[in-house]
Amino acid sequence: MNFRSDNEADAHPAIIEAVSKAFRAGPVHSYGADPWTQKVEHRLREIFEKPDLCAYPVATGTAANVLAIASCCPAWGAVYCHPASHIAVDEANAPQFFTGGAQLVPIDGPAGKIDRRKLEEALAQPVYGVVHHPQPAVVSVTQASECGAAYAPEEIAAISTAARRHGLKVHVDGARFANALAFVGCSPAELSWKAGVDVLSLGATKNGALGAEIVIFFESAAATEFEFRRKRGGHLFSKMRLLSSQLDAYFSDSLWLDNARHANQMARRLVAGLTPLPGISLLYPVDANEIFVVLPARMHDALQAAGAQYHPWPSDRPGERAFRLVTAFDTQPAEIDRFLAIAKSSV
Amino acid sequence: MNFRSDNEADAHPAIIEAVSKAFRAGPVHSYGADPWTQKVEHRLREIFEKPDLCAYPVATGTAANVLAIASCCPAWGAVYCHPASHIAVDEANAPQFFTGGAQLVPIDGPAGKIDRRKLEEALAQPVYGVVHHPQPAVVSVTQASECGAAYAPEEIAAISTAARRHGLKVHVDGARFANALAFVGCSPAELSWKAGVDVLSLGATKNGALGAEIVIFFESAAATEFEFRRKRGGHLFSKMRLLSSQLDAYFSDSLWLDNARHANQMARRLVAGLTPLPGISLLYPVDANEIFVVLPARMHDALQAAGAQYHPWPSDRPGERAFRLVTAFDTQPAEIDRFLAIAKSSV
Amino acid sequence: MNFRSDNEADAHPAIIEAVSKAFRAGPVHSYGADPWTQKVEHRLREIFEKPDLCAYPVATGTAANVLAIASCCPAWGAVYCHPASHIAVDEANAPQFFTGGAQLVPIDGPAGKIDRRKLEEALAQPVYGVVHHPQPAVVSVTQASECGAAYAPEEIAAISTAARRHGLKVHVDGARFANALAFVGCSPAELSWKAGVDVLSLGATKNGALGAEIVIFFESAAATEFEFRRKRGGHLFSKMRLLSSQLDAYFSDSLWLDNARHANQMARRLVAGLTPLPGISLLYPVDANEIFVVLPARMHDALQAAGAQYHPWPSDRPGERAFRLVTAFDTQPAEIDRFLAIAKSSV
Amino acid sequence: MNFRSDNEADAHPAIIEAVSKAFRAGPVHSYGADPWTQKVEHRLREIFEKPDLCAYPVATGTAANVLAIASCCPAWGAVYCHPASHIAVDEANAPQFFTGGAQLVPIDGPAGKIDRRKLEEALAQPVYGVVHHPQPAVVSVTQASECGAAYAPEEIAAISTAARRHGLKVHVDGARFANALAFVGCSPAELSWKAGVDVLSLGATKNGALGAEIVIFFESAAATEFEFRRKRGGHLFSKMRLLSSQLDAYFSDSLWLDNARHANQMARRLVAGLTPLPGISLLYPVDANEIFVVLPARMHDALQAAGAQYHPWPSDRPGERAFRLVTAFDTQPAEIDRFLAIAKSSV
After folding, report:
1. Are residues D132 and D149 both part of a single domain?
2. Which domain does C328 fall in, by range?
3. Closest chain A residue to B91 measured between Cα atoms?
4. What ipTM does the predicted assembly reach?
5. B62 vs A236: CB contact, 8 Å cut-off?
6. Rounded Cα–Cα distance for residues B163 and B155 (Å)
């Protein structure tokens, strides 16, 4: 009953297998000139219906985010993001480091999602071309958000429209993009470039990989400097097959979506069992694989005693204790059911 | 007959196995709070006979080098290194990026090794505390050097003595430290902290891993900021077991030294077969697993025709063509012998 | 009738005279080893009753702020400041540049002043020592604030107490410190180090100088790296007397306070004349030399027609037009009176 | 008899006068929207016969150099410069700071001047577009060099041709450009853009100003980002007239060239008197206003005893003591003659 984080999970057997095989294949060219890296890019062009996209594997979500953002933001630029976003809260100033000092501007909104109107208001400030002010450059949205909510394609499009009106680029932190996509149910293209996204950090690590993410530029022109940025960030792998063999398996046979769908279903199973119970309330809608929930003290105690693992989460209302529970690609229905049984019996 | 680079090689089966097993072990804490990461640090304390060293896994050699150097160099500092060093030539300004702008000062010497006397001369300049001048902060040596030569413990100690006299720290880029150690034949401690090394980037990727390096601080006090630097560089893995399970296997049962010894032996077997042939000359002594050699045109053509792979290398003498050949942990004696047979038959 | 900004004003004759004289004094040592620079530091030690303070002239307010902040904030640090603060809004990401990427965290409050309770709440987040999160490092307050309000010594002390409880340093952007001091009426020490301020950017440019600011560290230990930071920022003057001769005159014979007092009085004279008029309302208390005021349309038109100059200012209430008027050390009572006469006649 | 440095000299009365007047002119727009700043740019367009050049005042030579270089060098770029150049030796890593980490590559040559053939050799390395290697971006030459030698227009052109062949930009550190120009005797255009220079840091501080330099882009397109870089570096003056009134006087009535010519003549008078004396030898040709000379011990002692001031300079030959003597716009012939009389009498 480990619901601490999807980054504590194992890797999917097919991905482990792919890595094992890749490293027994004999010598291959290094630094990405290997067959897996090429295959991944080609497959992503098909999956996203975008024959000229460029895709670059990196190892961590932070690397993916900050290299992507740095590619479209000058050192005197401003990046608009939710105050709860990973780039603002969980990356130890890596965005500022890689951009050479860009400013993060918090734009609030419910459930970790940027409020389009607040964004428009912020972008309407008369700062453009004025040398004193940080120059609006990028809007970064997290899909699914840090509160487990997914943006619909129309919501992304509305944000993109506001951004583009002022010349900004749109970045998506897609550490859990697969989970959002599985929830929304549209095509990958519809949830990305067709909705105005310029660059996507597409995660695999939290969804069954050992450690791999990929940065996708939907316009290849935007990517010219990326390889230099990746290298000088220390993020270019010599044995690139470590990353690309994972991604090759991940994007084959819909594994990425199957994994995400499973994790989402497990979250819904948990929600379905919990919400009827007294004293339970959800902080945010559960679109993806994260649940933010208020648990009564007795229930929490009973679950802890039984060995259930999950993190506390700040709650606004005094006296109330909230928690985050995360499901993963390999969460077992039986774990959920056992958790629910304990929860019920504590009532 | 692939002698292009040791980073084109497969991974060692024991390391592949360790990774596969680690990712089937069930949920573990993320970001390094897992059993493998702890084990690796403990094992290194034994191997290096230094109970208070601190060790941090990262994924690439560039990351290891620049995070290590940044930990002991202010933005207004100077880093003394060989003009052929990886940090000066092959890291796309990553050292300057991570230090906030340190200057690299080239100190020449034969076979890719810093000439101690030239270093002393450079360090004798009256720049200390003078606000205009970059402040001498770090000497970085590559062990084995980019020309395949190993520093003896006394050579490292002489450099350290010069460095410490002026308050500088000593960093070793040990991408091929195991190969150097296997050649020198002393203890790991004797080739590092006992010779005055402060921080070591210890490589595994080129020596049988899938992609893993580890930064070792021999004085734990020096490491306080390292974890912040690693995180803001995007180099902290959530599923850290990907790195630490590799390193755990690598440092078990002397695998790291066995691999290095084998690669070195294959290099020596190649040298032993080549040097008696007419028209052959070595550019540098072959201490580790890299051979820099002038090949007669007919021999080169014959080898190419037979499918041998290796890189050209700049030669100082006009009309002469030099090449780099690299052996690896999995180079087969039969490959060497076939290579030598072709070489001989071309004479 | 120029009330656009105090940085559009002339310089005070005594300061012009001091510069002229200094540059006819014959050769002096460069880079600050001149008599004026030494004198300024000594005088500040007396003025602030702090014999071990260190003081460094620079040319611009932005340079003073960001060099001061960078001296006490790591690259992974967070700087808490008002969302309207100059460092957040008007320095084109210079704070992030000089710190190597620190994050600015906005803490709101009335009249451009940080709300101590909101600060305490922000500082209570459990982020200390957690490698993912920007590390709280500095609180920066603007004195007088960008809305023309002054912090009382007790207000500064309350902020400092909150900051120090968590190990943060306190920086004051004192571009208009003299105006605040003239308003508050306490001693310079009471409004700075006795209230817990660690480092002060003390302005002269807006208060009668040609272009000079000075960074004051109240604990000399904090200043060790400052000179390197100033030099590598390109902010060390070879002919330092250009800055220090200005500052020498500025801090002599209470000129700095006389200038500030005059500017404040002119602002009060303006306020006293305006507030009785119908349709007038002040956005913020007028403590220093800046007035933020709603003017009726007819009054604004009449003033513009008569050649009065001042900037528009954003107003929250629809239909209302607000403006900023700034007085300076050399604003003439007659200008104020003429302005008021026009205003009155427009009613 | 102060020959320590031209930055220890007074300012020229006409420049002092211009500043004094500018700060009594009444209110003017800040941040460069004042009449002096516009006039300076217009005058430089005439002087350099280039109607579309853009010119930006800054306060220090380091600021001018590093803002100029950063404008044409990516963070992964390489800047080729003489090992004795100010940017390499005397700017505390400011070039690396402002470029985000560019590498300085030393190219040696006699008298502080880059050897064109060595430059060509360095630029011929096959590093272009290869992601591992710092990308050649800028050649920076110092005119006059740090050893007092001037490049002829043909020498600059030869370097520019080599640079442009590989797509690099050419920067001139012209802290003593006026002295070089006075020596060479050609037009400003011939010594700059007609010889292939892209951006020039043109100094005034060492040649009679209080503290002012100006960055000139000969192609306006290159300058688009400059104003953001200047602001975020803290180098935009609110009371810009402090800089531009100096520069206005400096470029009026040939003052800049008159000052330089005088300083050069004083240097030649010194050389003419010294070289016939026994034991005297010059380290470099004396083109501008700096003399590097070996003085016999007795002569040095006699000069010191008489109060002559100048700096020691490293000499290659053991037992020999060399010195640097710098003349300035206000050096008096009588000072030279007194110096020479003492020197002669010591023989």
Report:
1. yes
2. 256-345
3. A232
4. 0.97
5. yes
6. 12
